[in-house]
Amino acid sequence: MSSLLFDEPGPRARRRIRIATVVGVLAALALAALAVRQFAANGQLAPERWQPYATWPMWRYLLDGLWSTALAAVVSAALSMALGLVLALGRLSERRWLRAPSAAYVEVVRVIPALLLVYVVLFALPKYGLDLPLFWKLVVPLTVSNAAAFAEIFRAGILSVERGQTEAGLAVGLSRGQTMRMIVLPQAARRVLPSIVSQSVGLLKDTSLGFVVSYGELLYSGKVLAAYNGLLIQTYVVVALIYLVVNASLSKLARVLEQRSSVRA
To answer: What are phi and psi of 137, to 5 degrees?
Structure first.
């Protein structure tokens, strides 16, 4: 069965993927073993250096950072999905004056790094009198960047719905707008839900760019904490583990949703 965004790999491609995965895992394990050895040789694994992270004040501070990360991610995801849906409908419109600018936005923004957009909001806009609050200096560039990705996801979902569904809606007297809203979009949304969750995982990781604008998300909180207690390695290891748990949970959710969609299909 083919995915909405790419074709399923064949037997030879799957074999190459398995080999590459095994090699990658072995390389990662070797690097991890080397890192642990170096940490131990330099006293970084001493219990007293990890003991502070067994206390509640440390975790409360990091959890506050995680909450700020989640807030920025949720607001950015909501806005970028709304804008992405508008762009997807624009690209599929029969009107050229809607289709052309929507396609141009998606094609241009997809190749621009999110970090560059952060710098635009941080340094360029204030020169023209638009100095956004700290929270929006992170959310706006993330929204602009991820809207292009969500637009392609929604467009793929809409195109995956059988043309007969649209024709049936028009045949019973619905307008094209009503057919899209009542028949096509609900089906498309169910089909692309796993892709939406996967893109949201990437968006959550992109909130670490708040480090650049000094927004108090998780990574920036880790930086401040490491500067305060001098436990640089320990702090960033803990922060990385928090990111790992959160992103792995969301990725698991995406796989579950994809499996359920496959069963229904």
So the answer is: -65, -20
Backbone torsions φ then ψ of 140, nearest 5 degrees: -60, -50
- Distance, in Å, from the CA atom of 243 to the CA atom of 207, rounded to the nearest integer, reads 11
pTM: 0.82
Q: What are phi and psi for residue 243, nearest 5 degrees?
A: -60, -40
What are the structure tokens assigned to 115, written together?
């970090």
d(Cα 202, Cα 187) in Å, to the nearest integer? Answer: 24
Q: What angle do CA 121, 122, 126 make, to 5 degrees?
A: 80
- Range list of H helices, 10-133: 11-41, 47-50, 56-91, 96-109, 114-119, 125-127
**112-170 tens-digit pLDDT:** 999 999 999 999 999 888 899 999 999 999 999 999 999 999 999 999 888 888 888 88
3-state secondary structure 145-187: HHHHHHHHHHHHHHHHCCHHHHHHHHHCCCCHHHHHHHHHHHH
Question: What confidence tens digit (pLDDT) does each residue in 42-74 have?
Answer: 777 788 888 888 889 889 999 999 999 999 999
Please state, in angstroms and rounded to a whole number, the distance separating the CA atoms of residues 209 and 224: 15
In this structure, is the dihedral angle defined by the CA atoms of residues 102, 105, 111 and 115, taken in order, positive or negative? negative
Give the up-direction half-sphere exposure of residue 265: CA atoms within 13 A in the CB hemisphere. Answer: 18
CA distance 4 to 138: 30
- Given a contact cutoff of 8 angstroms between Cβ atoms, the answer to whether 89 and 186 are in contact is no
What are the backbone dihedrals phi and psi of residue 77, each rounded to the nearest 5 degrees, phi first? -65, -45
DSSP annotation of 4: S
